[in-house]
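Translate sequence into structure tokens.
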Amino acid sequence: MGTVLLVALAAAVAAAVAAGLVRAGRREARAERARLAEEARRQARRSLDAVWAMDDREFERYVADLCRRDGCTDVTRVGGAGDLGADVTGYLPDGRRFVVQCKRYAKHRTVGSRDIQTFNGTARAEHGADVPVFVASCVFTKPAREFAARHRLCLIDVNLLGFWNNGTPLTSFLDLDISRSGTHRKLHPDHD
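Result follows.
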């Protein structure tokens, strides 16, 4: 009887120790996830600060480099006077032709519906785009996002640009419902 009681007591102590270790492990895992998320936010912010410091041509080269990184082929930066809204062109990994319009604006600016409408008028008709993509270093207005959704344009604003910069592939953004996602609120010049 004494041996059974001793074995039961040892099992109870072992179970209590194991439960405590599991709880401690979960706390550590939560703390580590929070630390990694905070570090990712800081890293994205640092990299977006670099984006806002770029000039227009550097921004176009940066976008072209992201396209190449994601397996796009025949990627060309064609921006400049008379580009008719095509700053970067190429082919997605699945063979569809894409055309990108880049706007490197200050973070407190917005891209409005007029810019999106102009791009829509040239992307497919002039450049033969299967996938028109508009990339901005700021946010899009609500009317711009709604127009883009109706006309199947891919919009990548400053928020999505941070994800793209940190490894999310371009193809992940192509089917987003842009009219319902994101925000159209301007960032403040001193926003962190």
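Note: The radius of gyration is 24 Å.
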